Amino acid sequence: xxxxxxxxxxxxxFADLPxxxxxxxxxxxxxxxxxxxxAATVVPMLVLRFGVVLPLLGVFAWRGLRGLGAAQWRGGxxxxxxxxxxxxxxxxxxxxxxxxxxxxxxxLTMILxxxxxxAVSRTAIPRAFVGAAALSLLGVGLLTEGxxxxxxxxxxxxxxxxxxxxxxxxxAMSRSRALRGVDSLAVTWVQLAAATVVFALAxxxxxxxxxxxxxxxxxxxxxxxxxxxxxxxxxxxxxxMWAVRATSPSRVSLLLGTEPLWAAVFGIALGGDRxxxxxxxxxxxxxxxxxxxxxxxxxxxxxxxxxxxxxGTARNVHEAIG
Length: 322
Description:
By secondary structure, the chain is mainly alpha-helical. It has one domain. The chain has 13 helices and no strands. α4 (99-106) packs parallel to α7. The N and C termini lie far apart (46 Å).
């Protein structure tokens, strides 16, 4: 007979493939957004994308939504406002920088979140993590130098702002008493709906109406929109719900952490991104730093029972930017 550990190994390996697929589609979504939207159509694109996601996700979330109280609706809506800001910063950032830069810079969320949690809870953070954070920040500095050392581009700064806002979203989510123990599917739907309201309110001031943009899209644009909605959001969401029960949270974190690598692969191979030797070295430092930082904090988490996944966070509903 096989031991329990031997029996668990195939199950974990089986869970790895869908998780890697999620990391892959998240990495590709930066390039998808860059091809789909321009500075004038970012907000209409987001309205259309969420207009596809919300009804489909609502079919599965309906039962949980009926059980939400007023405080939970308000809490989810407040977090959704932050989520809307994240989508806007990421999308505009991708438009104004390369898909490779965007994917690597947004990965700083994995470094910023533990640092912020440590500051808020006033707990010490491992020295190894501090070193990894410094390595990542150095990498971002080199990555954004372009053809010569200069200030980061507008797009780089917008994506960096999105990483900071993602960190704030994760902290707010974890500290929201009203949302503790609440169905994650329902909370995610409320947040996405609130973010859509943000986009709808911004539409009159940020480009043409969504229906006008939709009317001018061809088959390629609609294919990209459906890819972002169905794969980068819905597929990623449900895979995580399943995987966090089939494997450990630390394994999920490590596998999904390959997203910036895939962003660089797609950006360079398909997007035509060209990095100088110094910028390429910076990208490698970002990958090494975020991976080392994640490994420095994840082992301590794995000692605890697997929690209900925080699928309402910006990264989980992906965003991706997507």
